[in-house]
Specification:
eight-stranded mixed beta sheet; 895 residues
Length: 895
């Protein structure tokens, strides 16, 4: 049976009270499916940063346990008992809210206008397609909808409440007859006439009757007609009148009367009609509420609630009529909400968009209610728990608490924040929508951000594909951007340790050839990396302790990423300084000779490339000239051949020996005297004197330049080419202040190499020498030296002497403590800005790691989130990001 045919059959059967049977037979669902689901109970736990339960304040670091589609437990993680067999869903820095509820919609498939103006027996549920595609609504976070009967009739029928997903249709119907709709606004008044032909033959006794007008030509007539209808029920109901019997059944069940009333008279009429017949009632779409707010008993328990319309078209601009001064002005919906909250019915308010086409934007449209100062929690209730309670389905949906259906929405950030999107939607604990965003974007908000342009207050940092895309007080973000807010936090660039033992799982103490690429040796399972980044480290440099050694720079992500390999060559000047200096000169001298040979070759190769380009241009001109000469020669030969043929033809037509002339027919004619021929008149072309032609000048083919001979490569000396070119630097370890003089003399004066010296107390005694020769300092692991009571703060000495410096830990897991050691130096007098530069921007500059070291648009999203001032012992690391991925968060250790 096709689905459309099944729907028509079900619609017919519903009139005979057989709808439940139709659903079971035609769709193959019901008790069997439900019992099958119960037989396969499953337990799942959802862990998320925030949960807004819909019935109280938001819960931070929350957990929710779901069993077979129902919520079993919810609360802070520390208070929730997670069953051992539960399947865990770590939602991370997301926000969970109850599924949104559309308090009124027109989604019924067979919702065409009925000819009659009063049809309380019509059921919207009978025209609802449970198998239609509702992804657009689910993508907006809507999990439950009220479906109404046709709109433009006085009493079009009964509405129902259903969920938009799930395989069990019987469970998806929350209320088959939630309310009966009554339209008192202008769209439902003045209905057309009705013609009902008689059954059987027409006769004088049974003539054709004319069309009959219906009640509802005006508001007064509509209310009067409804009163008569209600009063007719008092004397009993004729079971043959389906309209009256349906209405009587609704009164018996205390079904809610849903009045659509906009103007003051319409609202008054609805309130008085409900009071006269003691009806449970709901007010939908009032526009002029301020003029009547004091006339209605809003706290009367018979009032189920008020539905306010957010009359906005998201992203659209349209002209509107300017109201006349004499006309009453509608009350803005946000002011209506405030008026009613002040009247004590904040829990009886719900929000409805202007039309079904805006349902998926319900979360955005509801933001307009914040204009009146209403809290976000109150507005969220108007989308969840309030409408559920108003429609009598609050025992299943609208809140996240034990016993409720696990219908919820996962947002990328706090509700109503700009840029927040629906990441996923769950119905009955099952994911029914997932965002298909292909852009891994994130927005980080903090109290202060240490950007390259200065410290930004109340700022945001946006990340797209691992790069900083925006930075400022209010930055643009792409769709479906995840948000993370760190109140009162400080964001600084990721920290760099220029001398660590990270990356291999153990210190590297073997002799390593300089041509070795250490990046290929990095271990993905180095636990010390995960430990180190808890201190804020995002980048490290690593080399062997046996010097000289190549140095590699890499990111401390879950999968270490090489930034530059090599980034430096580390040397050592120690022991017998005389022999150390001579050995260093031999090494660098040999390297310089090798580099010079290659530089000479590179220069010759560059010159050769230029000459080769000129040769190719000249060769092309030569080839073109040769082709042109050959073409000309061929053309001249052709012309000569044609001239020769013409001469021969002329001779054939000359006089015969007998004095006659040859004729076309071969017969001779009388010979007539012919004047002598002019000299050279018919001489062949080749006998003509040649003329000078420049194109006949002899062409000379250009000579191809000789390619220079390539020197023999020496892998052990190759890294020195980058060093002498200034593309990498030399890091020199010293133990004696006299060694600094050797470094200055050899590395700087003789070979002009970019140089950093790591020497602890030694460099503290020679800061002026470093400054004089433009040498940077590598400070650490000891930052403060004490000799006989005299304390030396090494980075302070460098800063005062104007020597730029960077920091190293010379440790593995201990590298986590590097920022704390620097904090002690700050406590002892080191400027915080100098300290932060030595840990971030200085290493990025000196080692030419241009993608890190500062926070600016286009740089790698490597940064640290701190609880307070950077490099203060009282400050904690809250989170660490590498390439836009949060690799550490403070509470992850306790999870």
């Amino acid at each position: 049976m096709k689905r459309t045919s099944a729907m028509k059959l079900i619609s017919k059967l519903s009139a005979f009270g057989l709808l439940a049977t139709a659903w079971t037979v035609a769709l193959g669902v019901g008790v069997n499916l439900e019992s099958r689901a119960n037989a396969q109970e499953r337990t799942e736990v959802f862990l998320v940063d925030w949960i807004w339960p819909g019935n109280g304040p938001a819960i931070h670091e929350a957990a929710m346990v779901v069993r077979d589609g129902k919520i079993v437990q919810i609360g802070p993680r520390s208070e929730v008992t997670i069953p051992p067999q539960a399947r865990e869903h770590a939602l991370g820095a997301m926000v969970m809210i109850p599924g949104l509820i559309a308090v009124e919609s027109n989604l019924a498939e067979a919702n065409a206008q009925d000819e009659k103006n009063v049809t309380p027996e019509n059921r919207a549920l009978d025209g609802f397609d449970f198998f239609a595609d509702y992804q657009s609504l689910l993508s907006g976070g809507i999990t439950t909808v009220q479906i109404s009967a046709a709109r433009a009739r006085l009493m079009p029928g009964q509405g129902a409440v259903v969920t938009l997903a799930g395989s069990n249709v019987s469970l998806r119907t929350l209320s088959a007859s939630e309310s009966v709709k009554v339209m008192l606004n202008q769209s439902a008044l003045n209905p057309g006439t009705v013609y009902e032909p008689p059954i059987g033959a027409v006769s004088v006794d049974r003539p054709l009757e004319p069309t009959r007008p219906q009640i509802g030509a005006s508001l007064v007539e509509a209310i009067a007609g409804l009163r008569v209808l209600m009063q007719s029920l008092e004397g009993g109901v004729n079971s043959n009148d389906l309209r009256l019997s349906s209405l009587a059944e609704m009164l018996k069940k205390k079904t809610t009367f849903r009045f659509t009333a906009e103007t003051v008279p319409e609202i008054q009429a609805a309130a008085k009609f409900a009071a006269q017949f003691q009806l449970p009632w709901m007010l939908v779409g009032p526009e002029f509420l301020d003029a009547i707010v004091g006339e209605i008993d809003w706290k009367n328990p018979q009032l189920r609630g008020v539905v306010l319309k957010a009359e906005l078209k998201p992203g659209e601009i349209a002209d509107v009529a300017i109201p006349k001064e004499s006309e009453p002005k509608p009350t803005p919906v946000w002011k209506q909400a405030k008026l009613l909250i002040d009247r004590g019915i904040g829990d009886k308010l719900a929000i409805q968009p202007a039309s079904d086409s805006e349902l998926s934007e319900l979360l955005f449209l509801s933001k307009v209610f914040l204009r009146s100062g209403i809290s976000r929690e109150q507005v969220l209730r108007m989308l969840t728990s309030n409408p559920a309670k108003m429609m009598g389905v609050g025992d299943r949906v609208g809140q996240l608490r034990a016993g409720m259906d696990a219908d919820f929405v996962v947002l990328s950030g706090q509700p109503f924040d700009d840029g927040v999107f629906v990441d996923s939607t769950f119905v009955g604990g099952e994911k029914v929508f997932t965002s298909r965003s292909v852009t891994p974007a994130m927005l980080i908000e903090a109290d202060r951000i240490y950007a390259s342009s200065g410290v930004l207050k109340d700022a945001s940092l946006s990340i797209v594909n691992g790069k900083i895309q925006g930075l400022g007080s209010n930055v643009s973000v792409p769709p479906n951007t995840t948000r993370k807010h760190f109140p009162k936090a400080v964001i600084v660039p990721g920290f760099v340790d220029v001398g660590s033992n990270l990356g291999l799982g153990l210190p590297l103490s073997e002799s390593i050839p300089l041509e070795t690429k250490l990046g290929s040796m990095l271990a993905f399972d180095d636990e010390s990396i995960r430990y180190a980044r808890r201190g804020g480290l995002t980048t490290a440099l690593m080399s062997s302790s046996r010097l000289p050694s190549p140095v590699v720079a890499f990111k401390l992500g879950d999968k270490p990423r090489v930034l530059k390999d090599p980034v430096a060559i580390r040397f050592d000047v120690s022991g017998n300084l005389s022999s150390a200096e001579s050995g260093l000169k031999r090494t660098l001298g040999a390297a310089k000779q090798y580099v010079d040979v290659w530089n000479k070759y590179d220069a010759a190769m560059s010159e050769y490339q230029g000459k080769l380009k000129d040769f190719e241009t000249a060769k092309k001109k030569y080839d073109d000239a040769v082709k042109a000469a050959e073409a000309k020669k061929a053309d001249e030969a052709k012309k000569a051949e044609e001239a020769k043929k013409a001469e021969e033809a002329k001779k054939d037509s000359g006089p015969k020996p007998d004095g006659s002339k040859a004729t076309e027919g071969g017969q001779g004619v009388e010979n007539k005297t012919t004047p002598p021929a002019t000299v050279n008149e018919n001489k062949p072309a080749e006998s003509q004197p040649a003329t000078k032609d420049d194109s006949n000048t002899e062409l000379k083919e250009p000579e191809k330049p000789k390619e220079p001979e390539k020197p023999k490569s020496n892998p052990s000396l190759e890294p020195y080419r980058a060093l002498f070119a200034g593309n990498i630097v030399a890091i020199v370890n010293v133990e004696d202040e006299r060694a600094i003089e050797i470094v200055a003399r050899v590395f700087r004066e003789e070979y002009k190499l970019p140089t950093l010296i790591a020497g602890g107390e030694a460099i503290a005694k020679q800061p002026q020498l470093l400054a004089k020769h433009g040498i940077q300092a590598v400070v650490g692991p000891g930052l403060i030296q004490e000799t006989r009571g005299d304390e030396s703060n090494i980075p302070v000495s460098m800063a005062i002497a104007g020597v730029p410096f960077v920091f190293q830990s010379s440790a593995a897991t201990g590298s986590r403590r590097l920022p704390e050691a620097i904090a002690y130096s700050v406590f002892k007098g080191l400027g915080r800005d100098d300290a932060l530069a030595g840990l971030t921007s200085n290493p990025a500059t000196y080692f030419q790691l241009n993608s890190i070291g500062s926070l600016s648009v286009g740089k790698d999203a490597d940064f640290v989130v701190l609880s307070g001032d950077p490099l203060d012992l009282a400050t904690e690391v809250l989170a660490v990001f590498i390439d836009g991925v949060m690799v550490f968060e403070k509470d992850e250790v306790s999870r």
